[in-house]
Amino acid sequence: MIKAPQTPDEKARLAALYEYDVLDTDAERVFDDLTELASEICETPIALISLIDPNRQWFKSKVGIDAEETSRDIAFCAHAIHDREIFEIEDTHLDERFHDNPLVTGQPCIRFYAGAQLVTPDGYAIGTLCAISDQPKKLNDQQRKALQTLSREVISQLELRQNIKELRKANDHKTEFLSNMSHELRTPLNAIVSFSRLMTDELSLLNHSGKTNDTSYKKFSGYVESLEYSSKRLLSVINSVLDLSKIEEGQMPINLSRVCCEIFFGQLYKMLRVKAEEKAQSLQLSINEDLPDFIVIDEDKVARILINLVTNAIKFSPAHGQINVNISTDRNYLNISVKDRGIGIGDEDQARLFGKFQQAKQGENQEGTGLGLAITKALVELLSGEIKLISKIQKGTHVAVKVPLNDAVDIPFISRDQTFAPNFARDKRILVVEDNEINQVVAKNIFNNIGVDIQIAESGERAIEFANKLPYDIVFMDIHLPGINGLDAARIIKSMSKNTAIVTMTADAFHDAEVGEFADFLDGTLIKPVEQNQLIQTLNKFIPLSID
């Protein structure tokens, strides 16, 4: 027996093999199919995808044998990787290199071998696709050609496998980056939005009390109004980018609820009509008589779709223009139609309008990120719906959305837009875990604004120390904390007091990806900036006012 020498490019060849990260992985159907095809075409009982590492040949796929690997010293494939042509041994008993090889003298009793090299795009032979028989044999030209073709397909599948792995890694990095950006952007924005809201409330109280100097009050009121508008605008931009990324990552869930059509569309109409009247426009809502009293939809997403479409129509319509919204149902579909008589969209712009960061040329001076329609389309498709746009320059635009209705009848009716009156016990112990000093001040003011005293813990360790001394009724826990993170702190606090409700209060829009195994220790989530209505709803739920 003659042992095959190492290849001249052995170091680089092994690096190319390791790059695929395929050694010792589970069987995969796509490779097994290629091996079976090689066995049938070459008319041999055995076929292998064999990869050669420093000490062995390992079989990624195999037909006709049970072995997972053999020593490289006795491997036929170790010889085959030296030759770029088909390496064929018609009768091993007549070849001095193999006649006394253990694989010839013992199982699987190889008499015939033909191997096509698996050559990477950079030219390194990492193994073979081989056909083996226990009888002497010779491949014909068609079989040789087919074996080489199949060997190239093996490499193509390894390349595809590697590309998918790289894409997943890139997506993981993207999600991690967006998660960090979400936290870093929302943390200071939480203070800006919250303080501007608090100042607006204070100004309103001063105005009603008559304790204002007209000139200074109006000037300061204008500053606060501009601050609040700008902060909301920035928050809207951040939310748009993050929402689109969450949809692309498949991290946006569908939450169905039973919706009262009169309340749902009525509230949306009132809100949007105010926006239209600010531009002296007329917004008309028409609801088909066949629309049922209740429908089962994802309320938040359908509301976002309608708001985006109408806001777009308002933005690109002239003063005194008219916008018509029609709501109807047809064969278990909810139909939303928005028509305007605005500037319209050209054919060239229509083709790209649903792309990210795209706006019609006619609207280049308009405010916006160009994400509205991209998000609208993504939300419609997430709900398995359809969206169509018809528009002509200076004639107006018509957008039609079709979203399937769900027939689940056991989903309760919940109005998410309703204002919640405080109905919680004010004598309960509440802990807010927040490391950012400015957001600590924000939290104190928000809770004080609804008549609640809180304890602040600046770290997870401090929160655990507080909870260990005296259990809290509810803990609002930031996730990103120095030292022990919020999720680990939540688990420890929950283990000390199972009756303590723990609500994450985070600036990370991708928090769902982090929670994972910690979900059992958490009772709810609030995303910063926290709306006062959401906070009251949460307190009502976890520390309700007892009725004697």
TrEMBL record:
Record InterPro entries: CheY-like_superfamily, GAF, GAF-like_dom_sf, HATPase_C_sf, HATPase_dom, His_kinase_dom, HisK_dim/P_dom, HisK_dim/P_sf
Catalytic activity: ATP + protein L-histidine = ADP + protein N-phospho-L-histidine
Assigned EC number: 2.7.13.3
PROSITE patterns: HIS_KIN, RESPONSE_REGULATORY
4-aspartylphosphate PTM positions: D478
GO cellular component: plasma membrane
Response regulatory domain ranges (all copies): 429-543
TM annotation in the entry: none
Xref: Gene3D superfamilies: 1.10.287.130, 3.30.450.40, 3.40.50.2300, Histidine kinase-like ATPase, C-terminal domain
Keywords: Kinase, Phosphoprotein, Transferase
One of the record's GO molecular function terms: histidine phosphotransfer kinase activity
Histidine kinase domain mapped to chain residues: 180-407
Name of the featured protein: histidine kinase
Organism: Agaribacter marinus
